[in-house]
Design a protein that fits this description.
Layout lengths: L18 H36 L7 H20 L3 H20 L3
Helix pairs in contact: 1-2, 1-3, 2-3
Keywords: Membrane, Transmembrane, Transmembrane helix
Length: 107
């Protein structure tokens, strides 16, 4: 008998990981989040600083923010695929909060 089939022939769904496993994975990914988020923060800050010193209008560094947000979102999707749904939700919330905060400085 197949181990992932119930007795009535219906395939069982994949169970999500435990809360402790989700927490450990999320904590393990915090250095990556800090590195990618720090890069995005640095790019936004340098762009604003350069615009202020040149007398130009500050523009949003769209490609850098899309790249940083895309890396963090891809990590979240990989977590979903690996059944770490709690860590994935935390990753997506962290990404959305970071991008909203970085874009808020541009009005």
């Amino acid at each position: 008998m197949d181990t992932d089939m119930r007795t009535d022939g219906i395939r069982e769904g994949r169970e999500p990981r435990s809360a402790g496993a989700n927490l450990l994975v999320f904590l393990a990914l915090l250095p990556l989040d800090a590195l990618v988020g720090g890069y995005a923060w640095l790019v936004v800050g340098i762009g604003g600083w350069a615009a202020a010193h040149n007398g130009a209008e500050a523009t949003v560094p769209v490609m850098e923010l899309v790249g940083s947000g895309g890396v963090l979102a891809a990590v979240g999707l990989a977590l979903c695929w690996g059944r770490y749904r709690g860590a994935a939700v935390a990753q997506f919330v962290l990404t959305a909060a970071l991008m909203a905060w970085l874009l808020s400085s541009y009005g």
